[in-house]
Amino acid sequence: MVHPLSPDQRIVITGIGLTAPNGNNLKEFRQSLLSGRSGVRPFETRYMGKVIAGVCDFDELLYQKRKEVRRGTRAGSVSIYCAQEAVRDAGIDLGGVDRSRVGVYVGVTEHGNVETENEVFNISQYDYDTKFWSHHHNPRTVANNPAGEVTLNMKITGPHYTIGAACAAGNMGVIQGLQMLRLGEVDLALAGGVSESIHTFGIFASFKSEGALASHEDPTKASRPFDRKRNGIVCSEGGCLYTLERLSDAEKRGAKVYAEIAGYAINSDAFDFILPEPGRQAECIRAALKKAGLAPGDIDILNTHATATPQGDIQECKAVRSVFGEGSGVWINNTKSFIGHTMGAAGTLELSGNLPAFDDGWVHPTINLDDLDPDCALAGLVANAPKKIDRVEHIMNNSFGMFGINSVLIVKRFRG
To answer: What is the SS3 assignment for 362?
Structure first.
């Protein structure tokens, strides 16, 4: 069979760098997902005391000096760790690469709140005297900071920017990297998403005021998508960046390939600030399938966005049912049940946790699903224990965000 795209237009994932609340590389992360290990725990935050959060424990000093960590941001450190790990995983020696042809595309939900909150708190200790305001504040809070910190750390001189797309941003970073490679603007893309959200008390306070902040006596059971007793979002930090390459370039250097990007779609609900619109979500899923040249029955694993909010989960389930029906054979899971909502990192991180299924055939479950909400009853939903299937050819990831920004990414088993 002749592939419809030339090797210069086929984009593949050749390296993965990640940090999640339950793993600091793909192997650890995957083992946690298959063994049911949550990464959610108690966390202390300003003004609110103890909350529940997904917290990462990667080594910030592996690729940065202490002075660089102090000067930069948590999002920057997450990005640097993930970018460096992805390049190392891909077996790329940046010393032999034209760094002006490397692009850095990092999806974020928001950026700058952490630093501004910290500075306001700091000057409050000095009667709000602004002479105590940090001169590092501006570079820490500009929107391109996470991607920019990567370029400084890795001496990359190609284009860099962040993609602000709420909780759809991780997928959007990957899509941007793919597009820039296909346009010939870069030869290597570091693409994905990151989140430092738990370090701002405001995100917890706002979700709590909305009635959307998860609570549970056992933190590891707080994130429970599709469960009748779900009561909100577990805020989490994390990150995942891929090295994306044109297949022609990957083949020249004999790179291993995790997956090929088969299709994607982005659209907007134009409906509500927060509440999703299932019709538009379904349109986004269908558009991604069309771009990939696939039918719903071709998808083997669907990783859902569901955040464990009462209405949000139901809306996505409506969208999934309208596309896949009851007999498509797709197996459905959810990663947030393990790690909470990693916001801008969610799309890339959650997709990564499923990529090893191409090799091992295991579908990781949705945990904490003790009492399935009938409105969330999806055919093929994998609950509480992994599911072994014969073969995995296509994986879909749904990532949706505030203001109705929807993104769907489809990857497929690589065939030369």
So the answer is: strand
Which residue, 325, 343, 333, is CA-closest to 384? 333
Per-residue model confidence as pLDDT tens for the chain (416 residues): 457 889 999 999 999 999 999 999 999 999 999 999 999 999 999 999 999 999 999 999 999 999 999 999 999 999 999 999 999 999 999 999 999 999 999 999 999 999 999 999 999 999 999 999 999 999 999 999 999 999 999 999 999 999 999 999 999 999 999 999 999 999 999 999 999 999 999 999 999 999 999 999 999 999 999 999 999 999 999 999 999 999 999 999 999 999 999 999 999 999 999 999 999 999 999 999 999 999 999 999 999 999 999 999 999 999 999 999 987 899 999 999 999 999 999 999 999 999 999 999 999 999 999 999 999 999 999 999 999 999 999 999 999 999 999 999 999 999 98
Global pTM reads 0.97
What is the C-alpha to C-alpha distance for residues 338 and 378, in angstroms, rounded to an integer? Answer: 19
Q: Do domains 11-252 and 263-412 have the same CATH topology?
A: yes
CB 92 within 8 A of CB 178: no
* Active site members: 167, 305, 341
| Superfamily classification of domain 263-412 | Thiolase/Chalcone synthase (3.40.47.10)
Residues whose CB is less than 8 angstroms from the CB of residue 9 and which lie 6 or more positions away in sequence, other chains included: 182, 246
Let me know if domain 11-252 sits in CATH 1.10.10.10.
Answer: no
Provide the 3-class DSSP secondary structure of residue 124: helix
